[in-house]
Amino acid sequence: MAIEPVLPDYADRCISNVLDALRNPRRPGPLLDLRSAVRDAPKIVLVLLDGLGAEQLAPRAAVAPWLASHQLDPITSVAPSTTAAALSSLTTGEAPGRHGIVGYRFEHDGHILQSLRWTVEGTDARSTHSPEKVQRLEPKLAGVPYVGRADFQTSAFTAAHLRGADYRGAKSLKAMIPLVSAATAEAPLVLAYHDAIDKVSHKDGFGPSFDSAVAEADQFLSDLRSALDPEVMLVVTSDHGQVDIGGASVDLSAATDALVAYRSGEGRFRWLHAVPGESGELLRRVTEELGESCWVRSRRQIANEGWFGDMGDEVEERLGDVAVVPFAPVFIPDPKVPKEVNMRGRHGSLTSAEMLVPLVVG
């Protein structure tokens, strides 16, 4: 039986619909259960836990009792299930095909842009790839207090997906609590971001340190809940889940790789950019070689199947010719990113472990 990808539910249960549900809970629309849960709350705090999937939370109820006891049904991430794309969908309310942050590394104006550090071949690219031009949609955050790491405050990716927000930098997880609590006295909606779970997963996979990171986040949420006024509703979600694959990889044969000019994307959602005139043959060969461990699609198939939602020509040009998206516990390497091989925990694909994220209200 063929394994089917978990496609983003852009019409309903997707991270892209969370902000609208919180801001307009009494209006009909997606995420009815979330709207119902917060409809009488005069103030809301939304916390984004980077890298905690629903399937990773489920077996860790003992170390995350607050999260485990306040869950609604999971929602989906976006495609690819990666931070840059998902956070941009959260803040703009649109699918990646509209906001244009279509992955960790994607083509823009003839270069491969690494979207989190905003670099091209390791060099800062803010002057040549303006965040406001790469991601043209205005985030729905005008004046909204946002509490996150202080060292992210002036980054180009912050400008791309958070411009307009009232960014309040914190130097530690503990320091976030009074900042969030104070912000609720000034605004009806406050956002906060915590990235430790994702970082630990990349380094160590699902070992004891991952459990500790989840437990630490759960304690933070419990402490935050205690610090907030009872009338404030606390909502928690994530941008994507994870798979722990160690260093397992698959790759193309030398003959097939000769049809590839360069690669973009990431290990669990790799784009192959074909040598001119060879995209059809590349698709055929990659399907033959890697089809037993990966979903293989052409750019046109990706667009037709709605993986990125509605997509204009400008955004479609940022994609490669052939997408190789593992459903098996492996990744597709890129010689241009040699350090990627050191990551244990990964995400980006459309497996349920990577796509389903918790939705928590308490």
Structure description:
Strand 7 (145-149), helix 8 and strand 8 form a beta-alpha-beta unit. The chain has helices spanning 18-23, 32-38, 54-57, 65-68, 83-92, 96-99, 131-134, 156-162, 173-183, 196-204, 208-227, 254-257, 279-290, 299-304, 313-316, 352-355; strands at residues 43-49, 75-76, 105-108, 111-114, 119-120, 123-124, 145-149, 166-170, 189-194, 232-237, 243-244, 260-266, 269-274, 294-298, 322-326, 345-346, 356-357, 359-361. It is built from 16 helices and 18 strands. Helix 5 packs parallel to helix 8 (156-162), helix 9 (173-183) runs parallel beside helix 11 and helix 10 packs antiparallel against helix 11 (208-227). The strands form six sheets. A six-stranded mixed sheet has the order 8-7-9-1-10-18, with helices on both faces. Strands 12-13-15-14 form a four-stranded antiparallel sheet. The chain has two domains: 15-244 and 351-361, Alkaline Phosphatase, subunit A, CATH 3.40.720.10; 254-344, Gyrase A, domain 2, CATH 3.30.1360.180. The protein is α/β, with parallel strands linked by helices and 362 residues long. Helix content is 32%, strand content 21%.
